[in-house]
Structures are given as C-alpha cells and as structure tokens.
C-alpha cells in the first residue's frame, strides 16, 4: 500500500495514494498509524477522486474510527490534491462526513484556506461540572464534529492528558468529544492544548482551533480574527456575525511511504 505523508502544524496524516479501494479494518488502521509498529501518523485520509464527481474524503482516526471533519486533515488533503495537479489556485469544494467545505490553495501549497462552515452552539451553552476534583465550565460547540472548550489559566500538555480523556467520555457527549483547554492571551491570540477524540493528545487541530475561537468570540473574549497558538504551530481563524468560520494554516510534505503487507499481519 502506498501513502503520502504531510503535517499541518505538527498534526500529521497519511494520504492513501492508490486507485484500489481502501479495504482496511479498524485494527489495520491502528497498526498503520502506530509510531513504533507502523508508518506513524495522527490519522489516515482516503480521498475519493472520480471524473465528474465532487471531491470527497474519508478521515480515519488512529483508533480506526471515522471522523466527521478534521481541519488539519482537510488542509493536508488540499495540498495533496495540489501536488497531484487535481486542483489549482482556484477555489473548490470538498465533501466530508461532517458537511461541505470550501477550499483554496495559496502560497503554492504551503498554506491552505478553508471555509469550515458554521460553528453550531447547543441550547445548553455551558455546563458546570467537577472533573477529577477540578471544577470546570464546559462549552460545547460543533464544527461538524463535536468539541468542548474549557477555559483555564494555564493550558498544559499534562492537563490535556489528565482531564481530556475524562471529558471526552462524559455522558454529556454521547458520541464522545474533542477537548480544547484554552487561555485567552489577548483579543487576537489564544493559547490552546488539545485532547482529540479517537487520537489522544495532539500537537494541533484545525477544527479545535475553530471551536476555541468561535466560543471565545461568542463570549466576547476576542475579536473577529484570532491566531490560535498550539505546540505544533499557529492557525489563523476569522469569524463573522453568523458564526461562519474561515481557517488558514500551513502544510508541509514529509514524504512517500510504501507499507509492507507484513505490517498488517503482526500479532502483537
């Protein structure tokens, strides 16, 4: 099996690079993504490219589950489509499980701009809960996939690793949730640490950046344009009065990989 690997602000994905159907089990996907026993990645992108049909993509997490959306994954896919000569600098559309997005390649593929759609807020906009002895206010929001924004004085990797998996599996979130630990630096900058549903701790996330910015703006903490600072890099988010979200961020090509069948036959 052939893959092309990219990273977007430290969040890396393998793009399936064959014409044959992608026929992999949950266990096989986990093996491919494993950083010690496989090729290593935060997920796998499987594009659907057919003449006369709209471009679409399936996004798989490291645990083999399928994600509705991934902002970094979508930017990576756009770069892959650019590298393959399938798209140009002109805007185009992509279909995801979480809805349609509008994309544009800029800076010769090094940056990608994506209109991610609407940030959707539930009727119960905030929940006051105790998590592992810590009192928190949880702010749910959907970017086509579920998110929970938690404002803290100091977002750290240790905090994300400790509380993220607990919040992900709270009964408030029947389909589990992505979790963002956010500090408002000023009206144009956010510092964020992320626990990603189906993946775990991650260096950055596109939809998490959108969610963090959308909730921060709704609460009046930030302006219409925000830079989200994560351990893996920065993503710029713009929002309008209807909660439409525009994301722009970097992409870097890592290399092309061939997976040996022996990898998928490992027993442990």
UniProtKB/TrEMBL annotation:
HAMAP family reported in the protein's UniProt record: DAP_epimerase (MF_00197)
Source organism (scientific name): Diploscapter pachys
GO cellular component: cytosol
Family statement drawn from the similarity comment of this UniProt entry: Belongs to the diaminopimelate epimerase family.
Protein name, entry field: Diaminopimelate epimerase
InterPro entries, sorted: DAP_epimerase_DapF
Database matches in Pfam families: DAP_epimerase
Lineage per the UniProt record: Eukaryota, Metazoa, Ecdysozoa, Nematoda, Chromadorea
Gene3D superfamilies xref list: Diaminopimelate Epimerase, Chain A, domain 1 (3.10.310.10)
One Gene Ontology molecular-function label: diaminopimelate epimerase activity
Single GO biological process annotation from the record: lysine biosynthetic process via diaminopimelate
């Amino acid at each position: 099996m052939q893959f092309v690997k990219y990273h977007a602000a430290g969040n890396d994905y393998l793009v399936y690079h064959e014409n044959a159907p992608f026929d992999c089990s949950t266990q096989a996907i986990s093996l491919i993504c494993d950083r010690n026993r496989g090729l290593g990645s935060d997920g796998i992108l499987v594009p659907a490219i057919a003449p006369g049909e709209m471009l679409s993509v399936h996004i798989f997490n490291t645990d083999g589950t399928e994600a509705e959306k991934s902002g970094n994954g979508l930017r990576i896919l756009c770069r892959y489509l650019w590298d393959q000569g399938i798209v140009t600098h002109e805007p185009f559309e992509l279909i995801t499980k979480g809805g349609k997005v509008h994309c544009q390649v800029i800076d010769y593929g090094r940056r990608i701009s994506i209109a991610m759609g609407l940030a959707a807020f539930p009727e119960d906009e905030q929940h006051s809960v105790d998590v592992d002895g810590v009192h928190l206010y949880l702010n749910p929001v959907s970017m086509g996939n579920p998110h929970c924004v938690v404002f803290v004085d100091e977002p750290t990797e240790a905090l994300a690793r400790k509380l993220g998996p607990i919040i992900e599996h709270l009964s408030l979130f029947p389909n589990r949730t992505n979790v963002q630990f956010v500090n408002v630096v000023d009206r144009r900058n956010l510092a964020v640490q992320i626990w990603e549903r189906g993946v775990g701790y991650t260096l950055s996330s596109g939809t998490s950046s959108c969610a963090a910015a959308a909730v921060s703006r709704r609460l009046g903490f930030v302006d219409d344009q925000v830079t989200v600072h994560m351990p893996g890099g920065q993503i710029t988010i713009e929002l309008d009065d209807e909660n439409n979200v525009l994301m722009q961020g970097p992409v870097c090509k890592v290399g092309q990989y061939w997976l040996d069948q022996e990898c998928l036959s490992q027993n442990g």
